[in-house]
Amino acid sequence: MPSRYKKNRVHIFSTLDSLNAFAFEKWIEVLEYAILKRGRFAVALSGGKTPIDLYKRLAGSKKPLPWNKTHIFIVDERFVPFEHDQSNFLMIDQTLLSQIKIPEENIHPVSTEENSPENSALKYEQDLTSFFKLKPGEFPKFDLILLGIGEDGHTASLFPDSELLSETRRMAVQVSHADTLINERITLTLPVINNSKNIIFLASGSGKSAVLKDIVENSDSALPSALVKPKEGKLFFLLDEGAGSLLTKP
Ligand code: 6PG
After folding, report:
1. How far apart are the C-alpha atoms of 194 and 238, rounded to whole Å?
2. Is 130 helix (H, G, I), strand (E, B) or coil?
3. How many angstroms does the Cα of residue 99 sit away from the middle of ligand 1?
4. Taking 90 as the threshold, does the pLDDT of residue 135 lie above it?
5. What is the pLDDT of residue 75?
6. Ligand 1 center to residue 199 CA distance, Å?
């Protein structure tokens, strides 16, 4: 079912199946181009519930996918062991990584075994620096970053009114309890997210319709998801009818 509403980068789908089918095709398009150009596809995945169906679709793909050339990073992580039910890596491992033949060295989790969230963030920055061969002051350029949106407009683990929204130097930072009601977290920062070649927001449910109207239609919005403005990359909002229900149709 093609998307019913295309305003540049916003696509609204009548079913979650058609939304995930579109996201799957977009993933293939981006990975094929990345592998053609750079010999590898570097993608950062979010946690939450919305992307689960896409991860399962990728895991069950009948079309063989080049997992040996795909590098999976994590957008944000809770500072808990990987076996903890709040772990984003656990969900991504259960729905995708454990179902595919991907080399261990292609999986780049946020290590939560460090003795503090700050040390986990620093370790993740070292991993990003070595994988992307970064010089001081450079930011990683992912081929694709998949993001969700909270009902408060947060994305990754960047929450409204957080001082982390004005971070300009760090690539990954700790998110203190002040910002989040549950576990301490580690998150990629906006400079990394906005340096990506492609960013896809996945959102479903009318509970997100109000923040999506602000994010998509209010150019002055200060919501974290509204601050995702790729410098050169492409930005897509893939929404179901509930999430897109308050948007002004063309
Ligand atoms: C996390 C995610 C977070 C998520 C949103 C939306 O660690 O939970 O990174 O940013 O994407 O909260 O979550 P849902 O997809 O479950 O609505």
Report:
1. 18
2. helix
3. 22
4. yes
5. 98
6. 15
Residue 179 scores a pLDDT above 70: no
Note whether 108 and 71 are within 8 A (CB): yes
Taking the chain, what is the end-to-end CA distance rounded to the nearest angstrom?
A: 19
Q: Is the CB of 75 under 6 A from ligand 1?
A: yes
Which of residues 113 and 176 earns the better pLDDT score? Answer: 113
Q: State pTM to two decimals.
A: 0.96
When pLDDT is cut at 50, 70 and 90, the band that residue 249 belongs to is confident
In ligand 1, the atom with minimum distance to the C-alpha of 205 is 17
The Cα 179–Cα 156 span in angstroms is: 12
The backbone torsions φ and ψ at residue 41, rounded to the nearest 5 degrees and listed phi first, read: -125, 120
Collapsing DSSP to helix, strand or coil, 63 comes out as: coil
C-alpha 80: how far from chain center: 19
CB of 50 shorter than 6 A to ligand 1 = yes
Cα torsion through 77, 220, 143, 6, rounded to 10: 120
Cα distances (angstroms) measured from residue 244 to each of 83, 167, 174, 203, 229? 34, 30, 31, 9, 19
d(CA 144, CA 156): 14
pLDDT at 223: 98
